[in-house]
Amino acid sequence: MGFKNVPMSVAKPSVNKESLFSPELRAEIDKWIAKYPQEWRQSAVMAALMLVQEENGGYLTTDLMDKVAAYLDMAPIAVYEVASFYSMYELKPVGKHKICVCTNVSCMINGSDQIVEYLEKKLGAKLGQSSADGRYTLKEVECLGACGGAPMFQIGNKYYENLTPELIDSILAGLE
Amino acid sequence: MANEVCFRNMDQDRPWLLEQYRSRGGYEVLTRILREKTPPESIINEVKASGLRGRGGAGFPTGLKWSFIARNAPGQKYVVCNSDEGEPGTFKDRDVLRYNPHQLIEGMVIAGYAIGATRGYNYIRGEFWEPYERFEAALEEARAAGFLGRDLMGSGFDFELHSHLGAGAYICGEETALLESIEGKKGQPRYKPPFPAHFGLYGQPTIINNTESLASIPVIMEKGGQWFKELGVENSGGSKLFSISGNIKNPGVFEIPLGTPFAELLEMAGGMKNGSKIKAVIPGGSSAPIIPGEQMMQLTMDYDAIAKAGSMLGSGAVIVLDDRNCMVKVLERMSYFYYEESCGQCTPCREGTGWLYRVVHRIETGHGRPEDLALLDDMTTKIAGRTICALGDAAAMPVQGMLKHFREEFEYHITHKRCLVS
Fold first, then answer.
1. A7 pLDDT more than 80
2. Chain A residues inside the 8 Å CB shell of B87
3. Of A47, A85, A159, which has the smallest distance from its Cβ to B169's Cβ?
């Protein structure tokens, strides 16, 4: 049995790639493309989706995923597969600040249930929901690899550890 | 004797900077290897002699893994670092990336030289933004100083290294899922064989090692495999990073020699929080079967001792639980994790992890049935060993461990519809 490993090809690579994204965004995506072998543009799909998601206020649409597919010469379905597989991509609108609370064992035995309860009450939103003003989305996540600072959550690119209700108040008050 | 290898620079003020790393002899081993054109075989032999075993969790001998590559075969080869740290309880590679990124870079270049690879990728989990930025800054410094790029120090050896960011998927810590992920796909593990040494990234010969393993290489090459081996004990060479968390006073990452008594590690971490009593320990990440506290207090932290006790050292993630914890609730949370993270490729795991979670959940919520424990026992044997990768085993093992040591708590839940503990 032979093994083959080639990028999932598309019938016709898209032309007019310039029209798909702003020059700034293209420059960012191109930096990632340059890291991989020339014929493996699709290796940049994870980074491209993340960049596009960020520019779109934190979530992806089918139209944006199609553009990523065209930009990287991928079949749209291959991009949808990636976007729906990894937990950091959002396929529905999210609040301005996504609060990702770890509830895995080390956090749980250090009180993450109370942290979730406090946040749900404060924001008026359950896990998986957004606050009425659209400012926050509350999300339960799996171990973020910061168990030494349990309980913890992530907002944007930042980890916040050893959480208490008072600390949560000051963190949220300090957000834009 | 602590902080000899990956944490040897932890006393420095800003140890992640090139200048600080070099002040302690950083990149000198690489320079010597390139200048003397050290035979690659002798590097692989040194790593073999060190007894270094994969620090990501599987514990496979690193030197042996490297020797599987046909280094003289034509074509591109790759070195891939697995920084997709996600095994619940593990948070050591985050610190290697944040505090000692140059030692990892140096280790990866040496690995590339040893196996004849000229390109490397470091797969960093997407949530690790701060560690990623530290690593990127270190890459830039290393490039500018001539430790990465073309014709390194006039040796004719090229090595280029990049980061790849994940996006939230535990399964990408499995080495072939990780390769799929770099290739821009869903992270679903591949059938093995062929192993990555023959058919890895982009179908080319590849070695994949954990962050801590690769960051150990420069020290092994500097002080010798024998020196490293003697830090530890039989079958467990070297020192290792332990991430210790749970109901303890000072959780954190500690580098200690393998073979150190668990009791000493617990003491380093300040002992139990609020004077509570130790109930149980998960010794190697949430996939490792739980061990009762009393038994754990008698064990040493090395591969053989923990295996003999029916568990595994895994990634060295130690979760300490005190006697206020309900084991049904703990297992419910762990089972939910595997259910959530199963990639969905193999039926026993995709369906089985959901079954495990739902049955433990109904026991936890007072709806357990008398036959449920036998059902759980049976299910674990129908998942473990029947899947492409080890996630199925990882889901089954904690269930087996809990039912072995804390069965009466589960029975109590089923009979009394409430918790024995709280």
1. no
2. 143
3. A85
ipTM of the assembly?
A: 0.96
Closest residue in B to A162 (Cα–Cα): B251
Instruction: Tell whether the model's pLDDT for residue B61 goes beyond 90.
Output: yes
Cβ neighbours of residue B398 closer than 8 Å, sequence gap 6 or more: B282, B286, B287, B288, B289, B290, B331, B334, B335
**Domain presence at residue A46:** yes
Please give the residue of chain A at the shortest CA–CA distance from B162.
A35
What's the mean pLDDT when you consider all of chain B?
Answer: 97
The 3-class secondary structure across A61-119, one letter per residue, is CHHHHHHHHHHCCCCHHHHHHHHHHCCCCCCCCCCCEEEEEECCHHHHCCCHHHHHHHH
C-beta atoms of A158 and B129 within 8 A? yes
Helices (H), B116-158: 129-144
Overall domain count for chain A: 2
Which of A35, A50, A85 represents a domain boundary (last residue)?
A: A85
Chain A neighbours among B 242-271 (CB < 8 Å)?
243-247, 251-253
Q: What would the two tokens of residue B149 be?
A: 């790029």
A26 with A81, same domain: the answer is yes
B66 touches chain A (CB under 8 A): no
Rounded average pLDDT over A3-16: 71
Q: Provide the residue count of chain B.
A: 422
Give the structural domain span for A80.
17-85
Residue A23 lies in a domain: yes
For the segment B341-366, what is each residue's pLDDT rounded down to a tens digit?
999 999 999 999 999 999 999 999 99
> How many other CB atoms sit within 10 Å of the CB of residue B73?
11
- Taking residues A16-42, report their average pLDDT: 96
* pTM (predicted TM-score): 0.97
pLDDT of residue B420: 83
Contact B243, B316 (CB under 8 A): yes
Option in B121, B165, B245 nearest A147 (CB): B245
A7 interfacial to chain B (CB closer than 8 Å): yes
